[in-house]
Write a structure and sequence with these properties.
Radius of gyration: 21 Å
Number of strands: 20
Structural class: alpha/beta
Distance between the termini: 25 Å
Shape: globular
Strand content: 15-25%
Strand order of the largest sheet: 9-7-5-2-10-1-11-15-19-20
Helix content: 25-40%
Number of helices: 12
């Protein structure tokens, strides 16, 4: 058997959680491969909205096993609150979830370090979510980190203390005003560790190898978006992990040859949270309408998302680096009512017209070149099949498929799992 992969193709917030939830019935295992509680996956069904931060999006299905891979960083405090939120739905998460021993833990001092580092940057801040993600990955690559498997071993608290002391010295070095009560934060942290210990820890690479050997179907779930990848995103305004297809291999311990379908998720327009370049960003009434109609606020941070037209230059780039085989277009319903739509098909870059993503896409270097199309007025949210689509929507989809040379297999016309139309 092979592993299918689902990931976001923009700057995150594409709607991955909903699609994983829709697809889960086809898979035995849903495996999260990177990121941490800075990423929120929103699922909506039966009139209830659920926001998951660390837990894979298959948790609400009866049969799927949900695996948190070695590439994920886990904040035990946030994770404990997520688990508490599941209890009201009588979900037996102890039986349905497993965690890689190689996943790294976010310590209270990681969050403090994040805040101190961002404060020290002043106007040069990168828009961190201040969840401690960056410092945790820094300790991982610096070979200082504490992993889930460590808490099964004797003496792990001494290892914790040494690292926390080191962090406090670093916080003092930044010389910024970060007020905190570490003793209080640690009380909650160690209580959450005890809850974490109630779950099953696994050697995930062996677990997945055996699952494939036994014919199990696996869907690898990415967090955030490809344009936030530490290597291939809009650096330095990126996250600290590999959000692209390559990250699924290193974040789960699976070989590249095991990946079969790569589902790429994108919005019918473009959004971005926090700082960083955004060539097609709109600063007018159209952008404001997109944000209002689309309810564009971060699932975890609550921060307003910047909105703009669909950027095909960037989308082609992320399709290529991920090897996307199928596309899924989200939030098509949000564009209803716009008299005309624009799609960026090329950039004017330092005086030349280019169709690829260059090294730097800051405003002074890049001007988007648009193709304009007629919009549609119809409300898509009640539609249940493609035959109901207005001609203008079909034209929009056909144009994107021709440009990207990849089929758009799914169109989402609303937030609920039932508002998902397969083409």
């Amino acid at each position: 058997m092979a592993v299918d992969l689902l990931l976001g193709l923009q700057w995150g917030d594409e709607g991955k959680g909903k699609i994983v939830d829709v697809l889960t019935r086809n898979y035995d295992i849903i495996a999260r491969f990177q990121g941490g509680p800075n990423a929120g996956h929103t699922l909506e069904f039966d009139g209830i909205k659920h926001v998951l931060r660390t837990i894979p999006s298959g948790i609400f299905h009866d049969k799927a096993i949900n695996l948190i891979g070695n590439g994920v960083v886990i904040d035990p405090v946030v994770f404990a609150k997520e688990l508490e939120g599941l209890e009201q739905f009588k979900i037996d998460y102890r039986a349905k979830m497993v965690i890689s021993r190689k996943a790294h833990l976010i310590l209270p001092t990681h969050r403090l370090l994040d805040a101190a580092s961002e404060a020290a940057k002043g106007k040069a801040k990168i828009g961190s979510t201040l969840k401690g993600i960056g410092p945790t990955y820094m300790d991982k690559t610096g070979r200082n980190g504490i992993r889930v498997g460590d808490i099964e071993l004797d003496g792990w608290k001494e290892k914790y203390r040494a690292l926390a002391n080191k962090h406090e010295a670093m916080i003092a070095f930044y010389n910024v005003d970060v007020q905190y009560d570490l003793a209080e934060m640690e009380t909650e942290f160690f209580e959450s560790i005890e809850l974490l210990k109630e779950l099953q820890f696994i050697d995930s690479e062996e677990y997945l190898r055996q699952a494939l050997k036994n014919g199990k179907t696996i869907l690898a779930e990415g967090a955030q978006g490809s344009l936030l990848d530490i290597d291939f995103g809009t650096y330095p305004f990126v996250t600290s992990s590999n959000t692209t297809a390559a990250g699924a291999c290193t974040g789960l311990g699976i070989a590249p040859s095991r990946i079969k379908e790569v589902y790429g998720i994108f919005k019918a327009y473009t959004t971005r949270v926090g700082s960083g370049p955004f060539p097609t960003e709109l600063f007018d009434e159209v952008g404001e309408d997109m944000a209002r109609i689309g309810n564009e606020f971060g699932a975890v941070t609550g921060r307003a998302r910047r909105c703009g037209w669909l950027d095909l230059v960037a989308l082609k780039y992320t399709c290529e680096i991920n090897g996307v085989t199928q596309l899924m277009m989200m939030k098509g319903d949000i564009l209803s009512g716009f008299s005309s739509l624009k799609v960026c098909t090329a950039y004017k870059y330092k005086g030349k017209t280019i169709e690829h993503l260059p090294f730097n896409i800051e405003d002074e270097n890049v001007t988007p070149i648009y193709t304009e199309m007629k919009g549609w007025k119809e409300d898509l949210t009640k539609m249940t099949e493609t035959s109901q689509f207005p001609k203008e929507l079909n034209d929009y989809i056909a144009f994107l498929e021709k440009e990207l040379e990849i089929p758009i297999k799914v169109v989402s016309v609303g937030p609920d799992r039932t508002q998902t139309i397969h083409r």
